[in-house]
Design brief:
Keywords: Cell membrane, G-protein coupled receptor, Glycoprotein, Membrane, Receptor, Transducer, Transmembrane, Transmembrane helix. It is a multi-pass membrane protein. It is built from eleven helices and no strands. By secondary structure, the chain is an all-alpha fold. The longest helix is centred in the middle third of the chain and has 37 residues.
Length: about 300
Amino acid sequence: MNDVSALPSNHTDCQVVKVPHLVFLVLGMVSLSENLLVVVAVVRNKNLHSPMYMFICSLATFNTISSLSKTWETLMMEFSDVGQLDSRGDSVRRVDDIIDALLCMSFIGCICSFLAIAVDRYVTIFHALRYHNIMTTRRAAAALAGIWALCGVAGAVMVAFCDATVIKIFFIVLFLISLLLILFLYVHMFLLARSHARKIAALPGSAMPHRSLRGALTLTMLFGVFVVCWAPFFLHLLLLMVCVENPYCECYRSLFQLNLVLLMSHAVVDPAIYAFRSAELRNTFRKMLFCSDSPLCYKVKALFH
């Protein structure tokens, strides 16, 4: 990721914005805690072993990898700044390459998982009666296997050929295609929900339904958060290719670390907008945090009674 943030050598009056390591460390730890909680909850609760929660678990896992990688990278940079680590050593460079590969893999994985969740919700609304025939556990598992294989290969290739223009183009095209697909699905779902709300409201004696519209607005909010957190990073990649010498482009590229803060913030927001709105997940979290569903917990409690 450091190569991506490098600025051209020509002169600019804009200073590179430096974000304190503590900010990345705090975001990484918070994101790691939240997403690990989601993964453990989905794995432990058999009621959550459905395609939708499988995709949510995949998203949380990618976010966990991203949080771990960025936290470890931040610690390495901190040790390097205080002279406890030689950043020019071969072993450190190899570790840095692994971290960058994991970060690239997790970023692509988040996009693919987000798209998978959008498709799942689209099928839920438009093919509700056939949902369980279309979105089977086997098909969901096959889709996740393909996503993880693609992301693993893409992460390794992007780090190995990070200076190649075609790699940046692939990253940008993948983002734009995913963005357009998600936009189409969410706009279609929003229009359908609004149409259903109008039909129900027209029935005699019916109250104005807020639930469908609230669900559609939630989808709009999710899409908006996704765009806000991800678009600046991909704009940075685009400017690296098409706007090399322009001083205004250099000023934007000087904000690269702020773009990384946005990316990590999305991993913090993900559990709230995807997982914590689920009653089943909230009940699972409550049982886990208050130790009320494990035989070991019962034994520990018995010792104090």
